[in-house]
Write a structure and sequence with these properties.
Elements lengths: L6 H14 L13 E6 L10 H19 L3 E3 L3 E2 L4 H10 L3 H18 L10 E2 L3 H17 L2 E11 L4 E3 L4 E2 L2 E2 L7 E10 L5 H6 L9 H11 L1 E13 L2 E9 L10 E4 L4 H8 L2 H12 L14 E9 L6 E7 L10 E4 L5 H10 L7 E2 L21 E2 L10 H15 L2 E7 L4 E2 L1 E2 L9 E4 L3 E4 L26 H4 E3 L6 E4 L3 E2 L1 H4 L3 H4 L12 H6 L4 E5 L5 H15 L12 E4 L2 E9 L5 E4 L4 E5 L5 E6 L7 E7 L10 H8 L1 H11 L6 E2 L2 H28 L13 H24 L3 H16 L5 H18 L4 H10 L17 H4 L3 E8 L2 E9 L4 H10 L1 H7 L6 E5 L3 E5 L1
Parallel strand pairs: 1-2, 1-26, 3-4, 12-14, 26-27, 28-33, 34-37
Antiparallel strand pairs: 5-6, 5-9, 7-8, 9-19, 10-11, 10-18, 12-15, 13-14, 16-17, 20-25, 21-22, 21-24, 23-24, 28-29, 28-32, 30-31, 34-35, 36-37
Helix pairs in contact: 1-23, 3-4, 8-9, 17-18, 18-19, 18-21, 20-21, 20-22, 21-22, 22-23
The structure holds one RNA strand of 87 nucleotides.
Length: 872
RNA sequence: GCCGGUGUGGCGGAACUGGUAGACGCGCCGGACUCAAAAUCCGGUUCUGGCAACAGAGUGUGGGUUCGAUUCCCUCCACCGGCACCA
């Protein structure tokens, strides 16, 4: 054993040891309980960032811990390898996306290996490999057959200069990111997956996901957005034809208070009216250009314009004006709303602004208005009793909704309806670097699916996109083909699939990544569901919802036996770092990396400022944010690993904050972790040295012959084991587990008993420390385990230690004594003392008597093993 | 605007089921070692008063329940995250 802790040497040796034994390769084994621990696979952007390191460290700790608990643990890793950044990189440097992506994968794989994660690399997959994405295509064809996949038009952002479709993130202030040209909305044919068919099931099943964070379930429920209401039809005549304007409302009880209707700018009625009304046409154009549907627009001014058209109230027969409103969404419900200004805040402000009548039809308990109110009051929206509503007067909310829905239905002018916010999933992307959609367009036969025998439709890997449209559409070797039906020359579909498709089932493929004749096989049933899924909260909605949907489709096709893929979900918090800046002479802001900044403290350790190391001049602290290039506050994992070693980085990440909280990066914190590693190493080293000097076996422990001080140290070791086991296994918090081990190590370093029994206790405790820390800092622990006399023994295959119940027994315990809830003393009593004995000991304590003297004692509360509270 | 989350020393955090507030670490202060520095080790570190024993205050604000509240309930405030003007 080396005297000095040198992580570079230790980690290289231990990684070689694992590699030699194929320590992380795992096979299905029906004799053992299985545990599938999965971290979200990364996009191969080039380098790992600290968020990845945190994510995968959490997964690795859980995996290693469960393995030591006796589970057959699967922890795979792969690459979410299709996507836009590869195309952007190609445009910049002319390298084909395939090449760029595979280089990145190779580099990042080495990074992951240097961190010592126990991944089974034999199951590695990349979604850009045909052996993977062919099954996207295969399942898409099954979905087509089932009617789950279908074609309809959809609206996309069109850059007229580059003649290309832009992603939302490529549209900045309504302009194309590269060309700066105003983006147009275009309607093009696309393929959709009918996720709405599963809406009710996806919603209902959320209740069964008890292992998911409450907030993620809430976010999904809101996203699915079930709402019960009534579809109301307002009849009208146009060009001599009788038609209806449909609206959806959850407040059918306020129908008698309708004074206008508002339609979305894209609504056909708006389009019709605009034809003969240039001002309206201009207004509609404005609305469409605005960055609609963004959160900040919640505060946007509600604007509208009359169409000049009128519809008929389905019950009163009154004429109702139709407006175009910038706040009405075409994508929700019918793209039209009924305006009830007396009982809806938006409608109220709209009516006030444009002088529309306000008609109270609900008595919300505050009575009837004598005059129209000038200000909105949230109470107006409450449920109440119908008034001014003719035959509905006196009905409450539910009764009125039922009665009105029934009357509308009788006339064929409406019915109760369930409305979903969720819409079908558009998977077509007009991009090159993705999975080709397996269809062929034939002039005679229409859209023809590629026959299974011709799969996969291979994506050519040598193309370099230049930003002007999809290169597939210009590559005849890809484009030109024969119609599988009639043999006539035909054109291949050039759209590729949304990359969310790739990530919707990769967790299934890890079970059988080597199968080239089927998408999944029996092994999936052994491993699924994923027992622990770990990833960022940013995937709380889309990825997780799509994966749940996709798994259900595969279930319905008989391919898998689970409907819910992820049993437990841990959403790890973001990694933040300080932001330092300085305003330059020309008014720009310059950001400095925290590594180049020195923080200044006062004599009490409070932070008073910061300055740049290179010039000593002050810099401004702007708080902490997620690491990003633009704020120059990133930290490179690779530099840290070479400076401190993987174990110190892993230890710091797990110690600094609970996994679900944000983690504030600090260089001093990593130094602290490294310091702890050196300390641990030294304590084991000194113990081992002592053993070698005495050249004998470790004295055997004789629990019955221990002194009180020796028993206390042994009790500390075993009770730490109890806590650490619970913290990692049940509570999934690692910071407190590490703190407990640090405390134990502090105890051990003060325990300088060199008697044979003292040495035996130290040896036992150090073995426990090394075992307890091994999921977190696996390299150093393996080396220390060998140094403690287990040469060549793989710690990862050792069973997790069990505490000795006898070591935990305590003869005496300390009881806290309070007087009127305030701490006034402590007494030590035998552990098995009766309540009466504890009470009299407490009352007799000197400091307590001082406070109770001469006062009548009203009550004494005794909490077993904890405290006594004397009420006077 | 809505939904969700979080507020505890100089800082990150701990206190799991209502029972000793501040574990553990960082920073800071003091000491040992050293010619010196770094590293390492030892001690101290919520605030106020006191040499001390000890006393008082204290978990964003104001209230409530309780023998007892960081923990439960209500009000308000601040910050963070998500988004969907959802009819």
């Amino acid at each position: 054993m080396q005297e000095r802790y040198d992580p570079a040497i230790v980690e290289a040796q231990v990684q070689a040891f694992w590699a030699e034994r194929k320590a992380f390769s795992v096979k299905e084994d029906p004799s053992k309980p299985k545990y599938y621990c999965l971290s979200m696979f990364p996009y191969p952007s080039g380098r790992l960032h600290m968020g990845h390191v945190r994510n995968y460290t959490i997964g690795d700790v859980i995996s290693r811990f469960m393995r030591m608990q006796g589970y057959n643990v699967l922890q795979p890793m792969g690459w979410d390898a299709f996507g836009l950044p590869a195309e952007n990189a190609a445009m910049q440097n002319g390298v084909p996306p395939a090449q760029w992506t595979r280089q990145n994968i190779a580099y990042m794989k080495r990074q992951l290996q240097s961190l010592g994660f126990a991944f089974d690399w034999e199951r590695e997959l990349a979604t850009c490999d045909a052996s993977y994405y062919r099954w996207n295509q295969w399942l898409f064809l099954r979905m087509l057959e089932k009617g789950i996949a279908y074609k309809k038009t959809g609206i996309v952002n069109w850059d007229p200069v580059d003649r290309t479709v832009l992603a939302n993130e490529q549209v900045i202030d309504g302009k194309g990111w590269r060309t700066g040209a105003p983006v147009e909305k275009r309607e093009i044919p696309m393929y959709y997956l009918r996720i709405t068919k599963y809406a009710q099931d996806l919603l209902d099943a959320l209740d069964s996901l008890q292992g998911w964070p409450e907030r993620v379930r809430a976010m999904q429920a809101n996203w699915i957005g079930r709402s019960e209401g009534v579809r109301v039809s307002f009849p009208y005549e146009l060009d001599g034809e009788r038609r209806v304007l449909n609206v959806f409302t959850t407040r059918a009880d306020t129908l008698m208070g309708v004074t206008f209707c508002a339609v979305a700018p894209e609504h056909p009625l708006a389009t019709y009216a605009a034809r003969s009304n240039p001002a309206l046409a201009q207004f509609i154009e404005e609305c469409k250009r605005g960055t609609a549907m963004e959160a900040e627009l919640a505060l946007m001014e509600k604007k509208g314009m009359p169409t000049g058209l009128f519809v008929t109230h389905p019950i009163t027969g009154a004429e109702i004006p139709v407006w175009v409103g910038n706040y009405v969404l075409m994508t929700y419900g019918e793209g039209a709303v009924m305006g009830v200004p007396a009982h809806d805040e938006r409608d109220f402000h709209f009516a006030k602004k444009y002088g529309l009548p306000i008609r109270q039809v609900i008595d919300t308990g505050a009575g009837r208005w004598s005059a129209e109110p000038a200000q909105w009051d949230p109470a107006f929206e409450s449920h109440g009793t119908c008034i001014n509503s003719g035959k509905y007067d006196g009905l409450d909310h539910e009764q009125a909704v039922d009665a009105i829905a029934a009357d509308l239905q009788a006339q064929g002018l409406g019915e109760k309806q369930v409305q979903w916010r969720l819409h079908d999933w558009a998977i077509s992307r007009q991009r090159y670097w993705g999975c080709p959609i397996p269809l062929i367009h034939c002039a005679r036969c229409g859209d023809v699916p590629v026959p299974d025998k011709d799969l996969p439709v291979l994506l050519p890997e040598d193309l370099v996109p230049d930003g002007s449209g999809n290169p597939l559409a210009k590559t005849s070797s890809f484009l030109d083909c024969e119609c599988p039906n009639c043999g006539a020359p035909a054109r291949r579909e050039t759209d590729t699939m949304d990359t969310f498709v790739d990530s919707s089932w990769y967790f299934l493929r890890f079970a059988c990544a080597d199968n080239d004749s089927a998408m999944v096989d029996e092994r999936v049933n052994y491993w699924m569901p994923v027992d622990q899924y770990i990833g960022g909260i940013e995937h709380a909605i889309l990825h997780l919802l799509y994966a749940r949907f996709w798994t259900r489709v595969m279930y319905d096709l008989g391919l898998v036996k689970v409907q819910e893929p992820f049993e437990n979900l841990l959403t790890q918090g973001m990694v933040l770092n300080d932001i330092y800046s300085r305003r330059t002479a020309d008014g720009r802001v310059q950001y400095f990396n925290p590594a180049d900044v020195e923080v200044l403290y006062d004599a009490k350790g409070a932070r008073i400022g910061a300055r740049l190391k290179s010039d000593g001049q002050p810099v401004e602290w702007e708080g902490m944010r997620t690491m990003s290039k633009s704020k120059n506050n990133g930290v490179d994992p690779q530099e840290l690993v070479s400076k401190y070693g993987a174990d110190s980085v892993r230890l710091f990440m797990m110690f600094k904050a609970p996994p679900e909280d944000t983690l504030e990066w600090s260089d001093e914190g990593v130094e602290g972790a490294a310091r702890f590693m050196r300390r641990l190493w030294r304590i084991v080293y000194e113990h081992v040295q002592q053993r070698e000097r005495q050249a004998g076996a470790v004295p055997s422990l004789e629990p019955s012959k221990l002194t009180e001080a020796q028993r206390a140290v042994r009790r500390a070791a075993h009770s730490t084991l109890v806590k650490v086991t619970d913290d990692i296994g049940r509570r999934r918090v690692f910071n407190t587990a590490i703190a407990a081990v640090m405390e134990l190590l502090n105890t051990l370093s003060k325990f300088d008993d060199d008697s044979p029994q003292g040495q035996a206790i130290r040896h036992e405790a150090l073995e426990l420390v090394v075992q307890m820390l091994s999921p977190i800092v696996p390299h150093a622990c393996q080396a220390l385990w060998e140094a403690l006399g287990h040469e060549g023994d793989a710690l990862i295959d050792r069973p997790w230690p069990k505490p000795d119940p006898a070591a935990l027994v305590q003869e005496e315990i300390e009881i806290v004594v309070q007087v009127n809830g305030k701490l006034r003393g402590r007494v030590t009593v035998p552990a098995q003392a009766t309540e009466d004995e504890v009470r009299s000991a407490a009352l007799a304590a000197p400091n307590v008597q001082k406070w109770t003297e001469g006062k009548p004692i009203r009550k004494v509360i005794v909490v077993k093993g904890r405290l006594v509270n004397i009420v006077i």
